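step: validate -> pass
step: tokenize input -> pass
step: predict -> running
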Amino acid sequence: MAKLVLYYVHPGNKYSHANKLMFAAARGIDGITTLDLYAEYPRFDIDIDREQQRLLDHDVVLFQFPMFWYSPPSLLKEWQDLVLEHGFAYGAGGTELDGKHMMLALTAAGNDEAYAVDGYQHYPIRTFLTPLERTAGLCHMQFAAPYVLYGALRAPDDGRLNTHVTGYRQLLEAIRDDRYDFATAIERDIVEVADIPTLVRT
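step: predict -> pass
step: emit ->
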């Protein structure tokens, strides 16, 4: 079994439409570690030693968050700045994360057509995730395609949210059970709920 740690990063959790249900589903899965980063560090006083040990203890690191102004919420950046130290995660002697996987699960308010060259965001959503992808690369981690929900604000009303949450649970269970096809996921731009059956080995 793979050891998976899921960091939930949402400063407005009580107002969440989708992420709150996704995280609740994740917390109900046995055998994975879940952490609400804003609840753990409300004053941004991150325990570096504890977080580095958490990374050492797990094979897959997954960050779940809503897109805010084209990037993750600010606490995730603070976590990166402090925890991914030179000599630990990168640079001379920084080999502790070699071979581990990094993955994202994110929601976006805009629909998929918005995240295109001719859409109003002008770029694919993967472009906005480049800093996290390069962070994984610098730390010698494998960066798998993110699990994405577009149009998240409308998803509870148009019937997509429950299906997305079910897919999320299947994805997390597959990672835990070594049934997730990371090799294929690494080659994709994004993963949506319809892709889950093709990435989960029975």
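step: describe -> The chain has ten helices and six strands.
step: cleanup -> pass
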